[in-house]
Design brief:
Blueprint lengths: L12 E5 L2 E6 L3 E6 L8 E13 L2 E8 L3 E2 L2 E2 L1 E8 L4 E9 L2 E8 L16 H15 L5 H14 L7 H14 L4 H24 L11
Parallel strand pairs: 8-10
Antiparallel strand pairs: 1-2, 2-3, 3-4, 4-5, 5-8, 6-7, 9-10
Amino acid sequence: GPAHLFRLAGKCFSFVESTYKYEFCPFHNVTQHEQTFRWNAYSGILGIWHEWEIDNNTFVGMWMREGDSCETKSRQTKVHLICGKSNKLAYVSEPSTCVYSLTFETPLVCHPHSLLVYPTLTEALQRKWDEAEQLLYDELITDQGYKKILKEIFGEAGLLKATEENEIEKQSKKITLEFETVEKCSKEYKQLSEEIKKLRVLLGQHGIAYKGNLGE
């Protein structure tokens, strides 16, 4: 993410509402502590630093995921970054069960370009983005195709964590695209045939009989 935000790492900011104290430690975690004298007062993790939320090519929030278990899922928190005079945790809510929303004010995001994704990327990924922009401009890809390329770029940059579903999709895509053209199929077949020839020679050197034909 934006390098200038790294100065927040190692610091924690708290916010007290009713009987709860919330603590946000950027690039680390979010915790909640019940401020009561009950014997079973809740104290736990609402999320661990996971990935950025990116909207309109801008960093808009930090996702803290995989917190303490809550019914059938884990607690998670989205931290919204907004411009403010000082670094402070300004607001906390729970829009849906076990999904929390924090608003963090900081002067570090006041500059209009402070949360742009493009400047944080490597030259190679910036080139990939430029190429995608050109393809979109030339109407060679759709808006959906453009967004898909951007998602891939953000993933390669480590800004988004690949979920298990993404990994499964990636693997199945790899398998289905393997022989998408006759040329590719022929090339693969040729390579495999060469490999079998080498293996047959190797087996022969060790006196092991090879049953079967090249086609198999």
